[in-house]
Design goal:
This protein has 570 residues and is an alpha/beta fold. Helices cover 34% and strands 21% of the residues.
Length: 570
Amino acid sequence: MNTDIEIEDFEIGAKDTYRDNPLLKKSGVKVEYTQEQVDEYIKCAKDPVYFAENYVTIVNVDVGLMKFKMWDFQKEMIKVYHENRFSITKCPRQVGKTTTSVAYLLWLTLFSDTQNVAVLANKGSLARDILGKYQLAYENLPMFLQQGVLVWNKGNVELENGSKIIAASTSSSAIRGGAFNLVFLDEFAFVPNNIAEEFFNSVYPVISSGKTTKIIIVSTPNGMNLFYKLWMDAINKKNNYRTFEIHWSMVPGRDEAWKEETIRNTSLRQFQQEFETEFLGSSNTLVSGHKLQSLVYKDPIAVHDLLRIYEYPVKEGVNESKKDHLYCICVDVSEGKNLDCSAFQVIDISTIPYKQVASYNSSSITPILFPTVIYNTARMYNDAYVLVEINNNPQVADSLHSDFEYENLWKVFTGNKQPQQLSSGFARGIQMGLKMSPQVKAIGCSNLKTLIESDKLMINDFDTYSELTTFVQQKNSFKAEDGANDDLVMSLVIFSWVSTQKYFKEIVNHDLRKQIQLENMNQVDDEMLPAPIIEDGLEHDFEIMGGDIWEVANGGDTYAGFIKKLTDRM
């Protein structure tokens, strides 16, 4: 609780104020401190919690200006900030996280010389709002605790002890070139993934190079993004971040009755994400949310020119018990719009489950250079089979064929007004890659769902995993939700379509669909009473039409009496 500390403050004349603001002292003002003021100053300088409890002023919606009455978890939150170089806090809405953070930033800039602090948020306006709360608390400090002010505006504050604090949106250029002692990242889960990653890649090495520099990350969860990865890596001791979690029940007055009322006025899903702080993906995702939460990503064993490698190619002679593994590369070429990326996935197709062994995406690679990246990767992975999407730019596929003369480039047959079919040869109706039609996408999406949910395709790459959490149904198709990317997922959609093709089965010498069908039939058999089985002596085949599995009769016509949607079972 706040102690009622009453220490006589000194007054300053109008000429000693900062730009005629009677609440701010300008730099260079000479004052005489009483012994009582000196003692209190020392107490505040030693203990940020003591300072926050007794001298920080906040605005309460009901009361107006009032002293900051701290709850226990807020005191602990400040201690975590103070005692750790790297901290990450997961918290619900409306728990005073901003006020608590402002109190610590105020203490740091007041009682430590030459501290350079950056306050960053997903929007510049939000960062400036945080700085505004800092300024409000500063103006309501007694004069004997204030530093003289050199700069005071909506974007930055500079004090005579050399400490500075700026507010900006989170981006790679926000603090580039600066030397910062502390970077505070607010609502980091709401920073678009591409921007968040660019920020860390460009700025983090500079920040972390010092011995005392701090990074404080605070956010409410917002799906499986970089904030989620940093949090989970911290939980699993893969990074040096100290985790701090706040639960809604820590706030006095919040009980089960409050919970029920909040759910009634919002929704269960919103409550789970914003108050239970669960990492929920988007709703209506292609892959079920339950399955997405169970997926486990890995750190790449190597990164080479944006190619994230999770397994090196298995080659004959390296291990005599193993033969060369088969690999395929499915390529999604950028449309050249906004932050659209060119991407590809490298899949080990030697055995089931198939495995994602490498992944690549870039928003800056040009169609001229992209074929070189694909070619080098394909050669490394045992001359992998390559299929390129050619809707927007056939140049990539054409270059692989003509310039590199790459032999394992898959073609697609489009003749006789039939659906596109995977091919290897040259004939009339052959094109150098795959056109992503609604039919191809429907089959690919349906099969991708089946592959992942039945554990027949193992995903290792976090970026791919993150895209899956925002790959949602929109009208009669699936695509990335607004502000998200789906280039890596679409590469997997292409692969999933490939895995249904007859030519693919000839290459890998197995039929995945029959295996899944057999597993499901065995499961049904286990759940049913014994029954006689009559063998007709005929071989059966299956084909995918619109994502459904159909049995093909002896005459070649689709037998309409037998259909099973695998996606409904899984």
